[in-house]
Amino acid sequence: MDEFWNDWQPAMRASLCFVQRDGKILMIRKKRGLGAGKINGPGGRLESGETALDAAIRETEEEVGVTPLNLIQRGELHFQFTDGLALHCVVFVAEGCLGDEIETEEAIPYWMEPSAIPYHDMWADDAYWMPGMLEGKSFKGYFHFDGEVMLSHHLLWD
Length: 158
Hints:
Helices cover 14% and strands 44% of the residues. It contains 2 helices and 11 strands; from the N terminus they run ββββαβββββαββ. The two termini are 17 Å apart.
């Protein structure tokens, strides 16, 4: 693992929420911000005084109009970008949701089979941790990026 992780501190904190229902997973195509154009789960930056759990619920409601239920923390992602951005992200899985998904200024929602997840349209790290997360495993991931190019990765499973 790269030595800079020893003293690493995040400049930004965020959360992701993957809602599962009827054997499918709710994914989004991001319209703006970091990762615009990519497929991901709903999520975003924590607001001042907000917990990662609170942010996961709020961001899912804001981005796709549904309220996730029974959230379980499954992982932590640590990102270091060569431009200096240091991001810590807590990953949740939700068992169902209230409401119907809607397209917003932030995202276009899609329900899909886990076997159809388009990793080629996602951040490069997702293919490393997401399959295990969907199997119910917990993890910590460390990813070094130059823009959208992953330079190195280290993944720990609980």
